[in-house]
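Bumping my old thread because nobody answered last time. Still need a sequence for this structure:
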């Protein structure tokens, strides 16, 4: 029995998205910048996808710039704003940002930019009052992740973005894990920049997008032919973008029903594992991504999240770990450290994320297998609980 429960890492590409990609590869393969009929066909595919992706977040199509994925979208938002200034300024992020935001910010810091990293509480929440207090006269950008990929916490983005807007500061959010799972309406949400990724919503890898509110200025990262309204030069990956567009359209159509179904499965898994010795939920249980379940070990006793992932994989179940491995050394999760967990606990974290193909039977079997794995890895806790 094979069960895939790592949908926050990537999702299987929809058959309808694959069909759209095949059509672009075999029929609409022209360069969309060309003015002949082959170029026109490719341009039509491109602009159709732009409309589909824009509709997912209720944006105007001209405010969507296609990128190679969520990482490039984040980098374009952060570095694109920073490059508008001849001298270093001040920017604010949270302490639990994805590396696609954290790493370019570290680079800006090396270049003399001032950076404030907002703390989070034990549930992974940013306190709006902390953002209010951190704003300075030279603050030019705030970037707060919408739904945290490792612990599932959904931030009060509307409140945070309102604070930034009231002070005339641009606000960016990485919505890669939220889009297609929770409604996003940029006509009401006071964000200026918002990142999206195709392969998180059953589209292909290699495509993403940045929503750029009309009037926001960015200096592009790439110089060239001026594609994507000048924001992202380079001939567009039309087949991948075509698949992205179809996936976005289908995600929007299915979201209401699918989100409720996933919440039911998510809560069932939490409940089934609630009394498992030594297993502690992480993140916010209520303000949470609908498909996301995460835990760490209260008393790891030398057990790592990666060890649990390997054992689950041997049982045919794919989950993920929050720890990172570098040069053979397992490093604790920066997110869990920022949330106040010990280094040992932050190395013993797992994430289980659900998707379109997840069933109740999958959830029940996963809970049973995980409990068996933990009993083998931590026999001391199992005996103590009796």
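Sorry it took so long. Here it is:
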């Amino acid at each position: 029995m094979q069960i895939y429960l790592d949908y926050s890492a990537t999702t299987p590409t929809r058959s309808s998205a694959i069909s759209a990609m095949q059509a672009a590869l075999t029929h609409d393969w022209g360069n969309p910048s060309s003015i002949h009929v082959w170029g026109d066909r490719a341009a039509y595919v491109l602009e159709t996808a732009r409309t589909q992706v824009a509709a997912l977040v209720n944006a105007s199509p001209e405010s969507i710039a296609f990128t190679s994925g969520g990482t490039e979208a984040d980098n374009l938002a952060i570095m694109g704003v920073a490059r508008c200034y001849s001298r270093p300024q001040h920017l604010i992020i949270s302490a639990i940002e994805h590396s696609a935001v954290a790493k370019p910010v570290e680079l800006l810091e090396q270049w003399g930019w001032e950076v404030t990293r907002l703390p989070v509480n034990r549930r992974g929440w940013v306190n709006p009052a902390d953002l209010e207090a951190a704003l300075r006269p030279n603050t030019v950008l705030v970037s707060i992740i919408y739904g945290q990929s490792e612990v599932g916490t959904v931030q009060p983005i509307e409140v945070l973005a309102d604070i930034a807007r009231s002070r005339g500061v641009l606000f960016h959010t990485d919505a890669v894990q939220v889009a297609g799972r929770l409604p996003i309406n940029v006509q009401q949400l006071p964000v200026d920049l918002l990142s999206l990724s195709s392969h998180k919503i059953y589209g292909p890898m290699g495509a993403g997008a940045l929503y750029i509110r009309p009037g926001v200025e960015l200096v592009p990262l790439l110089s060239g032919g001026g594609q994507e309204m000048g924001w992202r030069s380079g001939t567009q990956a039309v087949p991948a973008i075509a698949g992205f567009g179809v996936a976005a359209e289908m995600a929007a159509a299915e979201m209401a029903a699918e989100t409720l179904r996933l919440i039911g499965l998510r809560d069932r898994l939490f409940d089934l594992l609630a009394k498992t010795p030594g297993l502690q939920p992480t993140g916010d249980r209520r303000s949470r991504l609908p498909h996301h379940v995460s835990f760490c070990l209260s008393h790891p006793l030398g057990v790592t999240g990666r060890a649990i992932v390997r054992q689950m994989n041997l049982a045919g179940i794919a989950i993920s770990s929050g720890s990172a491995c570098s040069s053979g050394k397992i490093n604790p999760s920066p997110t869990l450290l920022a949330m106040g967990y010990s280094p040992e606990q932050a190395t013993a974290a797992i994430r289980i994320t659900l998707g379109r193909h997840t069933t109740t039977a999958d959830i029940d079997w996963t809970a049973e297998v995980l409990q068996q794995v933990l009993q083998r890895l931590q026999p001391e806790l199992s005996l103590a609980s009796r």
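The longest strand covers residues 292-297. Let me know if any region looks off to you.
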